[in-house]
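[Q] Does anyone have a clean structure-token version of this?
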Amino acid sequence: MSGLKSAWELSLERSNKLVPELKSQKKLTKKQKQKIAEVRNEYSAKIADLDVTSQDKIRKFSDGVPPEEIGAIKAELEKQFRSEKKVLEEKMEKEVEAVRNRKN
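[A] Here you go.
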């Protein structure tokens, strides 16, 4: 029976094979974890604000726009939102990576 491995052990072995750099990743300090959480919360709030603002723009623009143009304008506003969201997410990941690489 000692030769049998649990599902957890098998999963761990597969994950090490798929993403070996995770095994060599350094441990984060409590301060780094806290800072990463702060950065993620800050950017989550910015993205949520952007989402609310974009949804508000979409609701308001239909008042003064001809019905045949609504679809195109809505699609453009949604595209703009996705683009701005992507930029914010990339900035967040860069900041998180900077915190991970800092020496404390």
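[Q] Thanks! Anything notable?
[A] The radius of gyration is 22 Å.
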